[in-house]
Design goal:
mainly alpha, 5 helices, 0% strand, binds protoporphyrin IX containing FE
């Protein structure tokens, strides 16, 4: 498996665990205020990162590129900012809205870069 896929799966596994802990905390307390943070941590952090890692494992030439490494760091940073910020925002820390917005835009950039890599027919830098 290419190194980048291992990185993606390690990050995805960490987000999976944190997402599950958040889900358990909601289920046990009966307080579902942070559903949005749990949903996005699970789907952006676990599902999407595992899918990115799977794609690069299936196309290792693209996985060896610098662009794939940039795509990895963008998606990890964006997941932390978006879901960490959203968690605190939903708990009432309204000042964190800009962090959620920046995280969302960085995630959009990571998704656009992923699409560009997928559609690219050339050797990637
Ligand atoms: C032990 C593991 C988990 C527990 C205890 C748990 C618990 C919960 C709880 C309590 C809610 C809030 C439901 C509501 O207020 O309507 C929720 C929502 C959600 N969970 Fe989990 N969850 C777990 C794992 C996961 C995983 C692994 C994923 C994704 C791969 C996931 C995706 C979602 C999504 C997308 C929602 C939002 C659903 C909606 O808006 O209707 N959860 N979960
Ligand atoms: C970073 C980009 C994203 C932004 C800004 C965003 C924003 C939102 C917003 C505003 C909602 C409505 C929340 C509510 O009504 O309480 C939502 C719900 C949802 N989004 Fe996203 N989303 C993003 C990415 C994604 C991705 C990539 C997935 C799946 C892989 C996803 C899955 C969901 C699901 C399942 C729900 C319903 C669960 C809930 O109510 O929290 N989102 N999203």
């Amino acid at each position: 498996m290419p190194q980048i896929s291992r990185h993606f799966f390690k990050a995805a596994a960490i987000f999976l665990i944190i997402g599950i802990l958040m889900g358990l905390q909601m289920s046990i307390s009966g307080e579902h205020k942070v559903t949005g943070a749990h949903a996005h941590l699970s789907l952006l952090g676990w599902v999407s990162l595992a899918l990115f890692g799977t794609y690069f494992a299936l196309d290792p030439d693209k996985g060896d590129s610098g662009l794939a490494r940039i795509q990895f760091w963008l998606s990890v940073a964006a997941t932390i900012l978006m879901t960490g910020g959203l968690y605190l925002l939903l708990l009432g820390y309204g000042a964190l809205a800009p962090v959620v917005a920046i995280g969302s835009l960085v995630y959009a950039a990571a998704a656009a870069l992923f699409a560009w890599i997928v559609f690219s027919h050339h050797d990637l830098p």
